Prior knowledge:
The complex is a heterodimer of chains A (435) and B (375). With 435 residues, chain A is of the alpha+beta class. Chain A is built from eleven helices and 13 strands. Helix content of chain A is 51%, strand content 17%. In chain B, the strands form four sheets. In chain B, strands 14, 15, 16, 17, 18, 19, 20, 21 and 22 form a nine-stranded antiparallel β-sheet that branches. Chain B has a six-stranded mixed β-sheet with strand order 2-1-7-3-4-11, with helices on one face. Chain B has a six-stranded mixed β-sheet with strand order 6-5-24-23-27-13. In chain B, helix 3 links the parallel strand 9 and strand 10. Chain B starts with a strand and ends with a strand. Chains A and B meet through helix 1 and helix 2 of A and helix 4 and helix 7 of B.
Amino acid sequence: MHRMLERQLTRARADSADGETDLETLLSLVDAAYVEFDRQRRVLAHTHEIMREEYLRINAGLSRLRDAITQMGAGFAIWDSDDHLVLCNGLLREILPETAELLRPGVKFADCIVQMGPHFGAFDGNQPARDWVTEWLVRHRNPGDPFEIVIGGVRHIRIWEAKTSEGGVVGVYVDITGNRRAESELRRAKEAAESANRSKSLFLANMSHELRTPLNAIIGFSEIIQGQMMGPLGDHRYLDYARDIHDAGKHLLGIINDILDMSKIESGKFKLDAEWTDLGELVEGVLHMVRARAREAGLTLHTAATGLPPVFCECRVLRQVLLNLIGNAIKFTPAGGSIDVNAKMTADGGIVVSVSDTGVGIAPQNIPLALMPFGQVELTLSRAHDGVGLGLPLSQRLTELHGGRLEIESTVGRGTTVSVTLPPERVGQSALRSA
Amino acid sequence: MRIEQRVWRANTGWRIAASDGGLAPALVLFFAAPGTLDDGKRFAELRAFYPGAAFLGCTTGGEIADVDVLDGTIVATAIEFARTRLAFAEASVETEGGSEAAGRRLAAGLPRVGLRGVFVLSDGTHVNGTELVAGIQKVLGPDINVTGGLAGDGARFVSTRVGLNTNPAPGRLAAVGFYGDEICLGFGSFGGWDTVGPERIITRASGTVLYELDDQPALALYRNYLGPEADNLPASALLCPLRIHPPGKPEAALVRTVIGIDNAEGAMMYAGSVPEGYVAQLMLGHFENLISGAGRAAARAAIPGARLAILVSCIGRKLLLGQQIADEVEAVHGVLGADCRLTGFYSYGEIAPLENSPFCDLHNQTMTITTIAEA
Lengths: 435, 375
């Protein structure tokens, strides 16, 4: 008798008051069992269906992962908790050809890299093959930050490894030899460019010095001729020529001085000789120097620079900056325009001196060019104007030597504002004089 | 240690199923089908059989009397100890969030000195079993083994009852503590369910409520797994337990059983916590594996001279196996031998120590066995 029927008979007897088999109880138990069997059959059939569905889903997921691993642009490997290879892709064998033969599922990680040993360069510097292998093993077993290996001193492989949840290791291996080569070429090119720039500055400094000596003779002697110190010149045109020689010499000297300053700044040899200076007086002095030129150009000149505290600067340098900026404004503003020179405190306690004109303006894309030494040469607009384009870049560098900054705001056809901002630490506590 | 077991059936009333004769029991464990205790008469009769004993019992999803799995009955097992002392404690669970506090209150009622083990019965529908066990262990420490189970209500999941020296009532917890050097307690717990399909991540959950697995509504996944049985939710969800473990720690896996569903939210409610971020995998039962699993639980619980084994087995196993469920009890009987009387019930959650860990936890869908011997 089947054990189920035996139990059902026992139950049918136990449930009856007289100890006899209760037929009704027995039938209901047997009937319930048949109903259960049907239900269990349905459940099992559905279970089978679900397992098939899940198998297909998992299989589809696996095949996607396999595709990803095969197609990815890096070497890939998974090692189990005993450090045996579970799987790797073809690219890993290409990246590590020395051990490609060994890279089959089941191989131990240590055996693979021992094979690599003799080919190895190092992590950094030259290490004996054995140390090299040991160090890679240690890094592999305690994965942390990505690291790089150099094979045969030529091939660079970047390795990223992490622990898997089963206690194994997953690794991504990228051949970065190309990147490393490009980086070193870039570095060489940069060093060459820097060296050329240093040579250029040195050449300019030397040449400027050589030019200055004869120029001083030209300026000095043309002054003597102008003054007719050795007697009258006779024809008045000689006097005009002597003045032309003198003015041209002064102009040339100014350019040479600018080139010298720029060279000094670029070679880091320019030293500031700062002192406490009354900015209002300085601005006033500069305006005095340019007022005649502005008038000749048909421009009006406005200024507001009083009641300011003293600034700690090199007077000559700051004067040169302002002369450059106002000179530019005069140069690039058509007759009938105006120039404003303002100095005021900034919110953080610094001082800003701005020179605004109603001139031709600079297009936004040309502003960085205007701030490059000799950049003006590139700007077609300025071909009509004299100068070598050193004024703005030199002013910017000289401002920066004071810890300040030079900024340009401009609209083509409307005008330009150049601001020189000096930081709070260059500004004294109280005004030298009140307005 | 001497034992007497009585079974009450509607047709026959109380009958003695086994007896060592003329004993004066200290403890009567009783497991009753829902509804059988409602008029209070059966409990009164039980008290009259064993005056002076303590009574600890609960409602069930099926009763176990030796190798028989019964429905609609009450199984009472009276135990007389030679030297072992007992202490009892009870508490109530007012709210779900209070399960840990309730566990602590319950454990605080048991003196620590000489305590060797604790058997707990708890309400099965208003308790977070995980927090309850955590609360008990916070007070008792990891050295004391705690076993027991959550009361059942057939396959209805509406109202479960627990009682200590009173007719069982909803929302109660009760425990017996065993004291002295003579008492020997064994335990074993085993499921035997098989994981099916991919591992999924619990992406949205709160306490014992699971909303989403891999960003998909949990209820929809269960409906798919249950197929034609989906109409019988939530009871049929017992056919698909959920195995959960912390990410990267499959060795700390636990099995969770569904005790309710929320159709509006598409959520499933469990007897224990389902923490967000855990890895989850659905399970399905294979008859042979469940039955041999019960045998493995018995092998772990076996101790020399065991006279009584309390079987707390999951209602989900009974739902799947139907009348063949007796096979699992027979498997236990085959391991523990004829000298060890079996009692127990089908529950909404089993409590036992975790394997290879000093800590106890709530288990689901297992056969959990506590064996008792007295030296």
